[in-house]
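Homework help board

Subject: predicted structure for assignment chain

Our instructor gave us this sequence and asked us to write out the predicted structure in token form, then describe one feature. I got the tokens but I'm not sure how to describe them. Can anyone check?
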Amino acid sequence: MSDKEQYDLDAYLDRIGWKGERRAGLATLRGVHLAHSLSLPFENLDPVTGSAPSLAPGDLMAKMVRGRRGGYCYEQNTLLRLALEALGFRVTPLAGRVVVGAGSPGSRPRTHAMLQVEVAGEPYLADVGFGAVGALLLPVPLVPGTEYEGAGRRHRLEPLPHDGPSELWELQARDRQTGKWTGQYAFTQEPFSAPDLEVFNWFVATHPRSPFTRRPYLQRPLPDGRHLCLDGPLLTETSPDGTVTERVLTEETEARKVVEERFGIAVPARVTLLG
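My token output:
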């Protein structure tokens, strides 16, 4: 069965609540990107159990569209790519190095997946799978140095010096309280294909040193501008003005209720949230 036969655009658009135009224009890209970001939470509950999630279109439909689950970058951006291609966009998968907390872009491998989307011949960075409060909620043009506001968040792309033949970009997010710009991830426009992402996905989901195999990590941006994060037992809520409140969950029953009700995720019976 082909990808197109396994993929159901109508079901996907119903899942994210998008009822706008179905044509390859900027308004559609922005609308679908935001609707996806607010509807499908970031989560790593499969890797926590030692399982690499499937990136097959039919499996993504079953888990994220027809089931009450989210996913991490490979799943999220594969699902978005399928939707955008079905809507007529030209999409190129990219891969980047997460730089949050890193000494330099070269100190970490390329373990994050994102997309380059062409709109009227111009490239945009689209990414619905970066599990952080600095993630994009709307796509941004691949133009250096310009600040973009999107759904209450500010971003910019900066070129970085490096020894490679391709230009290196860094996505930066502006902290709401301090105003400081912080690098999120660095990437080139080198295209990657599905087999590349399968290898990255397997490594991140199964390597014993991967943070995604050690504890549950969930993120959810809310329509009112708040952002939820569950990192192991620590529940963090960031308000639109950047104020952060924290609470440590101590009971498995409480943790499952929080994930079910606040993140909108049906926790599989095999998953233990608090270890």
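Reply (TA_rk): Your tokens look well-formed. For the description, you could write something like this. The helical segments are 3-6, 9-16, 26-39, 45-48, 57-65, 73-86, 194-206, 252-261. That's the kind of observation they're looking for.
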